[in-house]
Amino acid sequence: MHLPSITALRALDAIARHGSASRAAAELCLTRSAISHQINTLEETLGFAVLERAGRGIVLTYRGARYIHDARRALGILEEAAHRSAGGEVAGRLRVSCAPGFAVYWLSHHVGAFHRAYPHVELSITSPRTADEVGPRDADLFIAYGNGDWPDFAIEPITSLSYFPVCSPTLVNARGRPLTLDDLADVLLLHMGGHTDWVQWLATAGAHHVDGRRGIVFSEAPFAQQAAISGQGIAIGDTLVSGDALARGLLILPFDVTMDSPRGYYLVATPERAQRAEVRAFSDWLLEEHRVSARAWRTPPRQT
């Protein structure tokens, strides 16, 4: 039996991830006809079909799914061997699935440093369907939000979260004095996704006389955060979403009461992929870069 070509295996891997020959062709810088030729040759070599039609798209057959599962491990081994033979320089393709909140508020501000440190790593970043999703078919490494419970995966904690009110210093300055809990009865409350954020914080702070359901509800954290930066009201921020704005003085902490969250951000990968050179390089870089950047968030400015 002849062994399939590396190009054919990469073509199958790309189609399996994208569900589209056109997207696979774009990723591999090949034409669609070249992708089809590689798959046809692969099926002739293997003696069975690896893909089948599903509506307007294409999916793996049962045997194709089993085959690519093993083939991906082989591709990883071959890529690792190529990297080592190239003098130890880290290179190759790395697909990172990142929870949107972490991507917007941290990774997008720092990822250029990774490229400068590892210019030969072809990095692509995607967004998962849910923040805690860790489907190894879609990516090599996940930056996931959750409680750290992903059985059978290698897991490294990035950061835990704390919640607290944040507002623009201009909002406090306009009043001419520090805010008190009583002021929350007439200051506009900015909510994210519902009223739970403020209701829980007010209960923690002992401000039971304040209605935590009043104010404006935003569907996404960036909306509520930007409204707070613009001096429209007070939002519930956290150590990730508000960290950079606090460090730059765009936001301050009007109160000292914080709530710890049982959830946080984690690096998640299968044990096999966690040992790949490019995965290890990205993980080590992120943990160190985040540790350094977080120093500026530990003593955020407060109202005076």
Task: Characterise this structure.
- The chain is α/β, with parallel strands linked by helices.
- 43% of the residues lie in helices and 21% in strands.
- The chain contains eleven helices and ten strands.
- The mean pLDDT is 87.
Task: Specify the structural class.
Answer: alpha/beta
What is the helix fraction of residues, given as a range? Answer: 40-55%
Instruction: Please trace the helix and strand order, writing H or E for each element.
Output: HHHEEHEHEEEHEHEHEHEHH
Per the principal axes of the C-alpha atoms, what is the gross shape? elongated
Number of E-type strands: 10
| Fraction in beta strands | 15-25%
How many separate helices? 11
The whole-angstrom Rg is: 24 Å
Average of per-residue pLDDT values:
87
Ranges where pLDDT stays below 50 over 5 or more residues in a row are: none
Q: What distance lies between the first and last C-alpha atoms, to the nearest angstrom?
A: 77 Å
Main sheet specs: 8 strands, mixed
| Main sheet: strand order | 4-3-5-10-6-9-7-8
Supply the key terms:
single chain, 304 residues, alpha/beta, 8-stranded mixed beta sheet, two-stranded antiparallel ribbon, 11 helices, 10 strands
Summary of the model, kept short:
The chain has 304 residues and is of the alpha/beta class. The chain is built from eleven helices and ten strands.
Topology:
Elements: H1 6-18, H2 21-28, H3 32-46, E1 51-54, E2 57-60, H4 62-85, E3 92-98, H5 100-117, E4 121-126, E5 141-146, E6 154-166, H6 169-175, E7 189-192, H7 196-205, E8 216-218, H8 221-229, E9 234-238, H9 243-247, E10 259-269, H10 271-274, H11 277-294
Parallel strand pairs: 3-4, 3-5, 7-8, 7-9
Antiparallel strand pairs: 1-2, 5-10, 6-9, 6-10
Helix pairs in contact: 1-2, 1-3, 1-4, 2-3
